[in-house]
Design a protein that fits this description.
single chain, 6-stranded mixed β-sheet, 38% helix, binds N-[2-(1H-imidazol-4-yl)ethyl]acetamide, binds zinc ion
Length: 328
Amino acid sequence: MKNTYIVICVIAACCLAACKGNKATTTEPTGQDSVQVPEFDADSAMASIVKQCAFGPRTLGSKAHSDCAQYIEEAFKAAGCEVSRQDAEFTLYNGQKFKGCNIIASYKPELQERILLCSHWDSRPWADNDPDANNHHSPVMAANDGASGVAVMIEIARKLKEQAPAVGVDFVCFDAEDAGLPEWETAFDGDEQDTWCLGSQYWANNPHRTDFRFGILLDMVGGKEAAFYKELFSQHYAASVVTYVWEAAKDAGYGSVFVDSDGGGITDDHLPLNRVAMIPTIDVIPYYPNMEHSFGSTWHTVKDTPENIDINTLKAVGQTMLQVIYGY
Ligand code: AHN
Ligand code: ZN
């Protein structure tokens, strides 16, 4: 009798283990519904934006730039990541050279199954889209177009430390994305596209690793009433990643922020990752169909400041990224 009982228990335990095993190895992203996804703290992300902006505009060569690099490194270290700096020299459209750096933070670098998150951290040196031409040579504070993506990534790193997901994550902060050809420049005759995204171009030619399942670029993820449409190069190079991320947004309750429609095709840091490093990478970038500029009213203006950040947008993007990571 006792033996029969033990046999039944062993069989039951095996069945349970088998079921669990089945579930863990399922390839369907529907597993997202059953995992505990931590709450993204958008207030904490906002505080990081304020902190980055307090250094001043983080333009190449400035004190604000080097001070902010140190802050970003320390923030990822405090979140338990392994951090390294990739120093590089960048040549602008006008031949001017600057020293700068990409900042790389790895969560559990020993894990084989990995996701890449990235964002640029530099500020544009010229507010060349400002409605007031007097501001066209002033730097952009870049609360949205710079600090927001980094802030969301730092906040995600903090959550990974609290509650371990099944995958590893690398965070790469690209320098010199936004020193591309200014609109007021009339004397340039090269390829304009090459003047943008200098840090990601450098990294794609010198990646610290490339074994990522996919990459997600966060660009301007804190704008007022922002919505994210399916960017065209992302759909071309990484269609299944777009589908997966937009599904995750729906599961997280942000289906209205991640809109199931086409956006534009944008020259951005995801292009060298797709074309040179061959990592399927999407761009999460806002699209305002009814505004004069599709990136929103503060884009490359002196109004890109912390007051014009929308905590709800940070929350929608941050929570969706946690859904992506913990649902994987
Ligand atoms: C261009 O408009 C050429 N690129 C948009 C990429 C960008 C600029 N993202 C932030 N600032
Ligand atoms: Zn920009």
